[in-house]
């Protein structure tokens, strides 16, 4: 016999259906979730088990639902893994979190997903609806916690609205621009019996392939055709649109260098194209140096426009006032959000660029051929300088990141895996060598072959590697046979529990720990702060020491291979010299290609505890010798950096706090 409470909660459902619920022969409201996942072809739910979530998790026990529950040991791992899965499929990653602690633990990667426009649906099982107002254990206003970093956040008010809310949530996560959505459901609502015929019909899908206004495209073409020295900035929306080919054609037409937004989430332009100049610098003066001599900037898919640690209004804007700005992206918020745009095209990048290119072809800007030839020569010079730098690195006692990057490149190409690898990047102190050497080329790779995030909250990469490896192919046509995660020692310590899920799910991933035994990016950040404010009027702040012990990872020293082994990652090795890197990389790749377990390479970027820097130059010497990626703006950037600070900080020093 049905209880009075159930009858009150579901007055529209017959007593017969409710009686059947006790015999496990009917459907429950939680099954609306699985209707949608089946419709979209989503096969994973990520999470950390809690009592409230059991009704939803239980649904993954039924083979007909075709969904597996991927158990993680921390919610930020679960959401990170969901992000990795979403990156590969282009469909929303799905996770279930546990009341207030669950969404609170997820905030770091929820922020990363929001800033990187990753489609997610986060389901949070709230305490019982009849109890929430009385402030029970773990309950809070969950929507307020999540809404700042989501496209939509909502708490279900009645079981009857669950199908409508879920349809809206998945529709919104997939609508351009993609992003995370949060739905709180009182857990008792998930167990309400429903008729067998009560199902979600499907999820409305809004096509992202819409072209911009034709008159505005013509206006943009006129401005670009009249440019004397144009520059292109490619943001994440380019990579998500898989628009390399179209943007390459435009760069050739304009004779324009292509720089990427700082902390690009994808490979937004192929690095074998001579127009490619790497990412924008991470300093105010560096960015100013890039734009200094340009009259027109084409800002395409450019969302993360101020990825800086330090900014001072007194030092001037990032873009000079005389710079004409032309925008194209699928997100109105990112169009001219910081500066005035002469022309603003709202449209899908892949659909709109061919139209723009056709308008420019009859009237390309003057000097395009000469600029293209100059960039070809600069690209050859860059290649020679990087090869010389690699030779120097091979003579060092410790391992420089360039040695790792080159060894990875050679193994990927030798094994013909250019279209079947994903590189997950969180070695934030050493981005340039990996971005330069790894084959993010139009000879097989795709933008999704590179994974990073625009948010910068640490601990994203190891969790992401799980979701990436769970998917066999990407929506852009590449595979995931080889998944490599390069991560700094400090970042790897955020969520080492990731190793357990990798072992539990038998996911063979190559983890490369770039181990310098310190928070190196914070050492660099400290220098940037002192450089900006150490002698500034009204400030004059300097730390007691430029080598604070709290930025060291020592006493005791960390054993990363043993740490991974404790969580089930049974294989790995310590690599201490440059000469040993290539064979170690080969062994690691052999292992993950032929086994179901991961492999950990502890690469000693600093073999022993680093000595204390005596001057600012000593800590940046490694970067001073490393070639920059942007050879087109090399001299103007250097001049701006020198004029901004007596202590020269090279443009390839990362900006990270």
From TrEMBL:
Residues 454-591 form the Thiamine pyrophosphate enzyme TPP-binding domain. The keyword Magnesium does not apply. InterPro entries: DHS-like_NAD/FAD-binding_dom, THDP-binding, Thiamin_PyroP_enz_cen_dom, Thiamin_PyroP_enz_TPP-bd_dom, TPP_enz, TPP_enzyme_TPP-bd. This is Benzoylformate decarboxylase. Keywords: Thiamine pyrophosphate. GO terms for molecular function: acetolactate synthase activity; flavin adenine dinucleotide binding; magnesium ion binding; thiamine pyrophosphate binding. Residues 29-134 form the Thiamine pyrophosphate enzyme N-terminal TPP-binding domain. Belongs to the TPP enzyme family. The lineage of its organism: Bacteria, Pseudomonadati, Bacteroidota, Chitinophagia, Chitinophagales. GO terms for biological process: isoleucine biosynthetic process; L-valine biosynthetic process. GO terms for cellular component: acetolactate synthase complex. Coiled coil: none annotated. Residues 217-354 form the Thiamine pyrophosphate enzyme central domain. It holds the Pfam family TPP_enzyme_N. It comes from Chitinophaga sancti.
């Amino acid at each position: 016999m049905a209880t009075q409470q159930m009858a009150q909660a579901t007055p529209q459902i017959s007593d017969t259906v409710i009686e059947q619920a006790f015999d496990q022969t009917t459907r429950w409201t939680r099954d609306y979730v699985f209707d949608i996942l089946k419709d979209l072809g989503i096969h994973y739910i990520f999470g950390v088990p809690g009592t409230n979530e059991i009704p939803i998790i239980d649904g993954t026990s039924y083979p007909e639902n075709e969904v597996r529950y991927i158990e993680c040991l921390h919610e930020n791992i679960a959401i990170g893994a969901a992000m990795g899965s979403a990156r590969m499929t282009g469909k929303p990653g799905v996770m279930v979190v546990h009341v207030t602690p669950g969404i609170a633990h997820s905030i770091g990667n929820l922020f990363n997903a929001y800033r990187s426009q990753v489609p997610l649906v986060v389901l949070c099982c709230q305490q019982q609806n009849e109890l929430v107002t009385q402030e029970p254990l773990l309950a809070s206003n969950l929507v307020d916690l999540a809404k700042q970093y989501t496209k939509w956040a909502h708490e279900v008010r009645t079981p009857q609205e669950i199908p409508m809310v879920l349809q809206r949530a998945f529709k919104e996560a997939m609508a351009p621009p993609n992003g995370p959505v949060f739905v709180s459901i009182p857990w008792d609502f998930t167990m309400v019996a429903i008729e067998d015929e009560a199902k979600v019909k499907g999820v409305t899908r809004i096509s992202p392939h819409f072209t911009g206004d034709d008159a505005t495209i013509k206006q943009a073409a006129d401005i670009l055709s009249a440019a004397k020295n144009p520059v292109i900035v490619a943001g994440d929306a380019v990579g998500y649109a898989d628009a390399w080919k179209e943007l390459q054609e435009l760069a050739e037409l304009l004779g324009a260098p292509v720089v990427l937004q700082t902390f690009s989430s994808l490979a937004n332009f192929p690095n074998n194209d001579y127009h490619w100049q790497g990412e924008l610098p991470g300093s105010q003066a560096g960015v100013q140096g890039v734009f200094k001599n340009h009259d027109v900037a084409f800002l395409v898919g450019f969302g993360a426009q101020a990825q800086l640690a330090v900014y001072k209004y007194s030092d001037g804007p990032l873009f000079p006032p005389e710079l004409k700005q032309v925008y194209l992206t699928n997100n109105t918020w990112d169009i001219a959000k910081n500066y005035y745009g002469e022309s603003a095209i709202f449209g899908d990048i892949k659909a709109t660029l061919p139209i723009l290119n056709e308008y420019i072809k009859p009237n390309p800007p003057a000097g395009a051929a000469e600029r293209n030839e100059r960039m070809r020569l600069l690209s050859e010079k860059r290649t020679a300088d990087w090869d010389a730098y690699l030779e120097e690195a091979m003579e060092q006692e410790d391992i420089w990141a360039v040695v790792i990057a080159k060894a990875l490149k050679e193994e990927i190409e030798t094994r013909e895996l250019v279209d079947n690898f994903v590189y997950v990047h969180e070695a934030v102190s050493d981005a340039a060598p990996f971005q330069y050497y790894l084959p993010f080329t139009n000879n097989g790779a795709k933008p999704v072959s590179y994974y990073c995030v625009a948010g910068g909250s640490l601990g994203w990469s190891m969790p992401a590697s799980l979701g990436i490896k769970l998917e066999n192919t990407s929506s852009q046509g590449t595979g995931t046979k080889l998944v490599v995660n390069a991560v700094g020692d400090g970042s790897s310590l955020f969520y080492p529990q990731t190793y357990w899920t990798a072992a539990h799910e038998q996911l063979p991933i190559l983890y490369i720990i770039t181990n310098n035994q310190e928070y190196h990016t914070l050492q660099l950040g400290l220098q940037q702060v002192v450089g900006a404010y150490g002698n500034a009027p009204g400030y004059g702040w300097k730390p007691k020491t430029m080598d604070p012990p709290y930025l060291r990872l020592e006493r005791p020293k960390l054993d990363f291979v043993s740490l991974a082994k404790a969580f089930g990652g049974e294989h790995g090795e310590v690599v201490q010299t440059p000469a040993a890197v290539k064979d170690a990389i080969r062994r690691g790749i052999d292992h993950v290609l032929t086994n179901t377990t991961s492999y950990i390479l502890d690469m000693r970027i600093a073999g022993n505890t680093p000595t204390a820097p005596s001057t600012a130059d000593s800590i940046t010497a490694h970067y001073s010798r490393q070639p920059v990626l942007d050879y087109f703006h090399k001299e103007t950037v250097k001049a701006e950096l020198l004029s901004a600070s007596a202590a020269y900080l090279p443009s390839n020093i990362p900006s990270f706090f």
